[in-house]
Amino acid sequence: MASAAEGAGAPLVLLVHGGAGDVADEGVPRKLEGVRRAAQAGYEVLRGGGAALDAAVAAVHVMEDDDAFNAGYGSVLNVDGEVEMDALVMDGKTLNAGAVGVIPDVRHPIDAARLVMECAPHVLLVGEAAKRFAVARGVEAAPPGALVTPRAQAALRQAVERGDYTMHDTGGSTVGAVAIDSRGHLASATSTGGTSGKMVGRVGDTPLVGCGGYADDTVGTVSTTGHGESIIKTNLAHSIIVLMRQGLSAQDATQRALDELGRRLNNTAGAITLSNKGDVGVAFISKRMSWAYRKGNEMHYGIDPDQHCVEIVQEKEN
Ligand code: ASP
């Protein structure tokens, strides 16, 4: 049964991605399962009348806890074998944003980013200082090394053997969520371990407003993934917003901005977008990108370029 919030205003939509990249065949089932679980968790928040920001953060939490993704537990490693994470949240109503860069040893970097937005007079805090700020205010710390997984260690060995950090080839598992709530407000949340074998102290696109994400209630909301340095150079998230402002649909704006990134910089990326009417855009120029969205009683998802599956969700009676 639909909750009171559902249908009261704009359509409720919760859209997530689980990263653009060369996802190996054996990684596909866990990624598809993970993005659907995340979309469902975020949608439940919307259905209960919750705010878009709460819903987007809830969806990212699910993927930060799942080592199928490169965020929180399961993050990829820098060249010294350490986890240094980036995260960003943005609230489309106020344009408030909060971010953390190269933050170590917290279970949910997205919570730290939100805390920066809500409790600091700044947009971005980095490194140990960001961790101290967050943990002092209740964000869950992780013991040193607890976020490192054998898979991330294997990926680092491969990255070091390959020796080329300029191309995006991470296996594609940064996570992001965008949402529109019953009051028509938008939000974006993105979280990542960055790229395997990155330099110590490297900040990627994810925590940079307009690169890793953007949200503006007057237009739409975006979360991106892919080669961070290319996303920074093209301001990918904000470029999509600008194209939508010029009249392109969420889908066309997302595709066009990504095509431009590929053409100019010969690298790969992906993005998810919602317009302020609840129209969906999903595009990637990488081999794969897992994504899912819940809208009404439909769960849509896919990972390959032409894949778009739809399932009807049977709600449990309350
Ligand atoms: N954009 C992320 C970064 O460069 C990586 C990714 O999305 O795969 O930090």
UniProtKB/TrEMBL annotation:
Keywords in alphabetical order: Autocatalytic cleavage, Hydrolase, Protease
Pfam family, any one: Asparaginase_2
Gene3D superfamilies named in the record: (Glycosyl)asparaginase
Residues reported to bind substrate: R202, V203, G204, D205, T225, G226, H227, G228
Site-annotated residues for Cleavage: S173, T174
Active-site residue list: T174 (nucleophile)
GO molecular function: asparaginase activity; beta-aspartyl-peptidase activity
InterPro entries assigned: ASRGL1_meta (IPR033844), Ntn_hydrolases_N (IPR029055), Peptidase_T2 (IPR000246)
Catalytic reactions of this protein: Cleavage of a beta-linked Asp residue from the N-terminus of a polypeptide; L-asparagine + H2O = L-aspartate + NH4(+)
Cellular-component GO terms for this entry: cytoplasm
The keyword rRNA processing is annotated on this UniProt entry: no
Biological process according to GO: L-asparagine catabolic process via L-aspartate; proteolysis
Function of the protein: Has both L-asparaginase and beta-aspartyl peptidase activity. Does not have aspartylglucosaminidase activity and is inactive toward GlcNAc-L-Asn. Likewise, has no activity toward glutamine.
Family according to the record: Belongs to the Ntn-hydrolase family.
Subunit structure as annotated in this protein's UniProt entry: Heterodimer of an alpha and beta chain produced by autocleavage.
Protein name as annotated: Uncharacterized protein
